[in-house]
Design goal:
The chain is α/β, with parallel strands linked by helices. The protein has helices spanning 8-18, 40-55, 74-86, 101-113, 124-130, 148-160, 209-219, 235-244, 268-276, 291-297, 301-310, 322-336, and strands at residues 27-30, 59-64, 94-96, 117-120, 169-172, 187-191, 205-207, 224-228, 252-256, 259-261, 318-320, 338-340, 342-343, 346-351, 360-365, 375-380, 383-387, 407-410, 415-423, 429-437, 453-454, 456-458, 463-470, 494-502, 514-517, 521-525, 535-541. The strands form 7 sheets. A 7-stranded mixed β-sheet has the order 12-25-26-27-23-24-13, covered by helices on one side. A 7-stranded mixed β-sheet has the order 21-18-19-20-14-17-22, with no helix packed on it. A hairpin with a 5-residue loop joins strand 19 (415-423) and strand 20 (429-437). The chain binds adenosine-5'-triphosphate and magnesium ion (MG) (2 copies). Residues 453-526 form the tRNA synthetases class I (E and Q) anti-codon binding domain.
């Protein structure tokens, strides 16, 4: 990979290293909540955190922010580990915020003892009403002045399960008049009787995200806590908590802009909705911007890492064109994918002057610019299949492919001439009768030019296959701006072609093998549905798009 370009975070870290801050250490973390599959936005954060650590001989932890048990599951935990690995990264330490529940509880007790937290009996609704607005200060809860001893007793009993869900919360005592609403006595703990995928029923109180996150960072000795811009307003709270409790270190929170990608959605909540309401076929549907979906569609880890580097890092939210991601995968596949032939809409071609029963094993190179990728055998015989629209009965001007009485070259094979069109009773073309020029294998015909080259397969040797052509999942660039993003799902996001034929060499394709189907697009074998000899290929991306122009 190329030398990384500088950005404001790399700059901050370079300066910290120069000043020997944190004893010259760089320790980052990637902290997903296991409430869904990772998406391309997470990839940006993964590449950033793991990348920064690797560039500076540092470390990067994977930490599950598992403080919301009702939405979290082990399936998500496992998928996240798999996806981080697949992207090419290895964490130094694996942690769960739930591992710190006991310590978090002790720190909360400390806060109460210092008079910096109190148990509040206001309802969630009342707390919201008391909180005030941007222009109006909040109102103090009557429980704010509860004596320390009473707070300690109540908090203990909250943990012991003596109260109903929602009956009490533990709040930080900061400033109800703060211009920053996050500082108006934010909740630190709530009572919630939910089974946790790791701690089971050990706890009926769970710590809030803002309280948990900063302490978890500090306990792990994180030096730079990189997060997205919406946490900028939470930074004073991050710092407040760490200033009050006595953690060994005080990490520095730095915010960067989220990735927003056109024609898709990067919000786990909305992606979850697409899955549960069956607008797509699961989290790994190739139309999904999830890592699992991109993998199944045929994206390479390298293309995604390249994309994350290319889009750069700023403090300004902006939309990235889908074309940038497509450019990255095309660049990788153009260089590395093996070439093969697949006919999407077959038209039968009988070569009258070719001997019945004969097969020629033609050698065709796997990559025109890379001889080191070798050659494969492509069988040629009397009956072949070509693409229906590579023949025109009434050709438009400049049509260079096959016409009646005209010639075309078969890729890697001979020049053929079309002599006759065969139609059924309804007037549909069912077959072409052609002849081949035996003198044209690997050389130009004598005395005439043949411009067109088309792909083909031998009927008898080819394999039936299903090809799935994916298009953008949404029909507008910014589905998030719609009142309901479900209204702008692209009804044509998937086209399934079931009568395709692929060349013989693909019979033994392996899951996630990637190909350029000549003239058609980049495809990979579907890892899930391609079973028992039934070949299914997913289109990763078309051969060309407008972004490059
Ligand atoms: P979502 O809204 O999709 O649930 P999230 O931020 O709540 O996203 P987390 O699991 O908490 O999801 O995210 C883990 C890390 O990934 C966080 O540090 C978060 O900032 C980062 N992240 C999430 N989405 C993006 C994005 N679109 N661009 C960059 N980083 C992101
Ligand atoms: Mg989050
Ligand atoms: Mg979220």
């Amino acid at each position: 990979d190329n030398q990384p370009t500088s950005n404001f975070i790399r700059q901050i870290i370079a300066n910290d290293l120069k000043d020997n801050k944190n004893n010259g250490k760089v320790i980052t973390r990637f902290p997903p909540e296991p409430n869904g599959y990772l998406h391309i936005g997470h990839a940006k954060s993964i590449c950033l955190n793991f990348g920064i650590a690797a560039e500076n001989n540092g470390r990067c932890n994977l930490r599950f922010d598992d403080t919301n048990p009702e939405k979290e599951s082990d399936e998500y935990v496992e998928s996240i580990k798999r996806d981080v690995h697949w992207l090419g990264f290895e964490w130094s330490e694996l942690h769960h915020a739930s591992d710190y529940f006991e310590q978090l509880y002790d720190y909360a007790v400390q806060l109460i003892e210092q008079g910096l937290a109190y148990v509040d009996s206001l309802s969630a609704e009342q707390i919201r009403a008391y909180r005030g607005t941007l222009t109006e200060p909040g109102k103090e809860s009557p429980d704010r002045s509860r004596p320390i001893a009473e707070n300690l007793d109540l908090f203990k009993r909250m943990r012991a399960g003596e109260f109903a869900d929602g009956q009490y919360v533990l709040r930080a005592k900061i400033d109800m008049a703060s211009p920053n609403i996050n500082m108006r006595d934010p909740a630190l703990y709530r009572i919630r009787r939910v089974h946790h995928q790791r701690t089971g029923d050990d706890w009926c109180i769970y710590p809030m995200y803002d309280y948990t996150h900063c302490i978890s960072d500090a306990l792990e000795g994180i030096t730079h806590s990189l997060c997205t811009l919406e946490f900028e307003d939470h930074r004073p709270l991050y710092d407040w908590v760490l200033d009050q409790v006595k953690t060994p270190t005080h990490p520095q929170q730095i915010e960067f802009a989220r990735l927003q990608l056109e024609y898709t959605i990067v919000s786990k909540r909305k992606l979850n909705q697409l899955v549960t309401e069956k607008h797509v076929n699961g989290w790994d549907d190739p139309r999904m911007p999830t890592i699992a979906g991109l993998r199944r569609a045929g994206f390479t880890p390298k293309s995604i890492r390249d994309f994350c580097e290319r889009i750069g890092l700023t403090k300004q939210n902006s939309w990235i064109e889908m074309g940038v991601l497509e450019y990255c995968i095309r660049e990788d596949l153009n260089e590395n994918a093996l070439r093969a032939m697949a006919v999407l809409q077959p038209l039968r071609v009988v070569i009258d002057n070719y001997p019945e029963g004969q097969t020629e094993q033609l050698e065709v190179s796997n990559h025109p610019q890379k001889p080191e990728l070798g050659k494969r055998i492509v069988p040629f015989s009397k009956v072949i299949l070509i693409e229906r629209d590579d023949f025109a009965e009434n050709p438009p001007p400049k049509f260079k492919r096959l016409v009646e009485g005209g010639e075309v070259r078969l890729r890697g094979s001979y020049v053929i001439r079309c002599n006759e069109i065969i139609k059924d009773a309804g007037g549909n073309i069912t077959e072409l009768r052609c002849s081949y020029d035996p003198d044209t294998l690997g050389k130009n015909p004598e005395g005439r030019k043949v411009k067109g080259v088309i792909h083909w397969v031998s009927e008898q040797h080819s394999q039936p296959a299903e090809l799935r052509l994916y298009n953008r999942l949404f029909s507008v660039p910014n589905p998030d701006n719609e009142e309901n993003f479900l209204d702008v799902i692209n009804p044509d996001s998937l086209e399934v072609l079931t009568n395709c034929r692929v060349e013989a060499s693909l019979a033994h394709a392996q899951a996630e093998n990637r190909y350029q189907f000549e003239r058609t697009g980049y495809f990979c074998l579907d890892a899930i549905d391609s079973v028992n000899g039934k070949l299914v290929f997913n289109r990763t991306v078309t051969l060309r798009d407008s972004w490059e122009k």
